[in-house]
Amino acid sequence: MDQVIIHVDMDAFYASVEIRDDPSLTGKPLIIGSLPKERGVVATASYEARKYGVHSGMNIKEAYRLCPGGIYMHPDMDKYKAISGQLHEIWNSYATALEGVAYDEAYLDVKEQAVDFDGARRIAYEIKRRTLEELGLTCSVGVAYSKTAAKTASEEKKPDGYFEIRTPEDFINLVIDRDVRSLYTVGAMTAEKLYSYGIHTVRDIQDKKDMVISLLGKQGRWITQLAYGIDDRAVTPYRPEDAKSISREVTFQEDVMSFEFLKDVLVLLALCVEHRADRYGLHGNGVTLKITYGDMKGITRSRLAPHCDSAAKIYQNAAQLLDGVERGPVRLVGAGIYNLSGEEDRQMTIEDLISGDIDHNNSMTDLLQRLQTRYHLDFAGNLDKIYKADVLHRTVEYMRKHFDQNSK
Question: Annotated catalytic, 155?
Answer without folding.
Answer: no
